[in-house]
Amino acid sequence: xxxxxxxxxxxxxxxxxxxxxxxxxxxxxxxxxxxxxxxxxxxxxxxxxxxxxxxxxxxxxxxxxxxxxxxxxxxxxxxxxxxxxxxxxxxxxxxxxxxxxxxxxxxxxxxxxxxxxxxxxxxxxxxxxxxxxxxxxxxxxxxxxxxxxxxxxxxxxxxxxxxxxxxxxxxxxxxxxxxxxxxxxxxxxxxxxxxxxxxxxxxxxxxxxxxxxxxxxxxxxxxxxxxxxxxxxxxxxxxxxxxxxxxxxxxxxxxxxxxxxxxxxxxxxxxxxxxxxxxxxxxxxxxxxxxxxxxxxxxxxxxxxxxxxxxxxxxxxxxxxxxxxxxxxxxxxxxxxxxxxxxxxxxxxxxxxxxxxxxxxxxxxxxxxxxxxxxxxxxxxxxxxxxxxxxxxxxxxxxxxxxxxxxxxxxxxxxxxxxxxxxxxxxxxxxxxxxxxxxxxxxxxxxxxxxxxxxxxxxxxxxxxxxxxxxxxxxxxxxxxxxxxxxxxxxxxxxxxxx
Length: 499
Hints:
The protein is of the alpha+beta class. It contains 13 helices and 15 strands. A 6-stranded mixed beta sheet has the order 5-6-7-2-13-12, sandwiched between helices. Strand 6 (119-125) and strand 7 (132-139) form a beta hairpin.
């Protein structure tokens, strides 16, 4: 018996007429090295039938509690037929990147059927150069970034020749309790809910200075420090900046439509900039995002005079939980220096900010996201979540956007014998988190970006992708022939003043 956690259930409750809460990825494939010279729906279905036992998230469906009195349970689908989850479409000529992105955005808009396992795959034929694309989505209540990569890895091979996968010995299936068991569990958790709420409030009080909006409240830092001392957590922690998101075009109620753009940046260039500046690869990625967002906002005379606030998901999945369905993530909320005009200064400030955030996270991992999800009874969160999200987007959004960087393998992989050329991740948009989401995945020498937006907030999402690539060129131009960034102190003063 396995019940969804409060955080997993929150991803279900966030869904509405304008929000689809699944994560996805777009793999670009070259079938030239496959035996058949093509990737067919039949081949993909055959691969799934052979390996679906390696991916628990693909075998389970939801068993809901009557009237949403408690969080749903996972149960094995005894009638799973992968055929119904695999679709195929062919793009009209010429089959270019814009057509592919438009088709993927349309698929991404549609919510998954909760009456069966929460995933779909779409094979997209007709791309230029004989390429094929595979778009796959799984509900966020079932996977996070790390487990999503593991689910994908179950289908991939190190060579064009598929590996032989042996089926394990049969094990008892995951089942949900019967109606009486569900209702008994709901009653027991309702009785314990007041104590659970108090516990969550106590845990959250120790982290007030890491929470958006809350950190700006008068006395928040003193309350957090005092609560940590009472809890016996007396370790000195670095002080974080106030986390108040400025108003931007990204924030506000979102609509049901989506736009998508994608592209890649050489990982070697990112590493070269990181080495030359003493920063990390992730610091450079965050700086690229800050630069792209700044350029986009400046074009529209909408650039705030203070940094944007981004939520950065962090995997906290342990080795013992590699095959556990659900989310094991936390989040760092950090300013990104969109207010700085100088690209080198943006990188320096971003590296310093991320260093502080990581030190703080290492000393006191942020668990407030899970605690916040646990504060109210399941029936209340089921009814209120989407409404609360929309009201918050109108009144005072806690963040401007989510930026996620998922590390991946640095060697070529194959699907049905076809080489995976790139893998562009896609995530979730909500009223609360903003109308644009930037995600990247490092794979085989590239950083593969996927940018998702709501057209009510960001219609020209390809422009953002262009700004990302321009930002990389800009940083590369700053590197001296010796391979180091020019000292920031040597810049003319006018270039260091925020615009």
